[in-house]
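Batch job 17 of 40 flagged for manual review because the log was empty.
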Amino acid sequence: MPAVDEATRATAGNGLQPTLAELVALRGSAHRSVPPRRGRHGLAGQAPSPLRGRGMEYAESREYVAGDDARHIDWRVTARSGRAHTKLFQAERERLTLLVADTDPVLYFGTRVRFKSVQAARVGAVAAWLAQRQGDRLAAL
């Protein structure tokens, strides 16, 4: 049987329904699960930055001006208007973590320990705590 920390064991419910105390207790395990990666010269990998997300997000199109990057020409607007247009981008400032829960009755069965629905709630809680730790916005459905 895998090792379970004392806080989780003390707050664990009967396995039929997740308890708030159990989900809050998972906050500690979420913070321990992702150690920072260190390289030869300090932090390696994702460096802390005020700009977050996968890069650039489309903002608008405007007429092409000499000196603009030709790789960003908006061909659809250019074809409609008959004049060259270029796309403008803005950097993403924050990421969104979307948690989607399945509440189908098929999840209301399980092992001797807990229902699959309870385990799904636990996984969702850990994912939410990790997103909160990284400063991401969180949405649930």
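Reviewer: the log was empty due to a logging misconfiguration, but the result itself is present. The chain has four helices and six strands. Unflagging and moving on to job 18.
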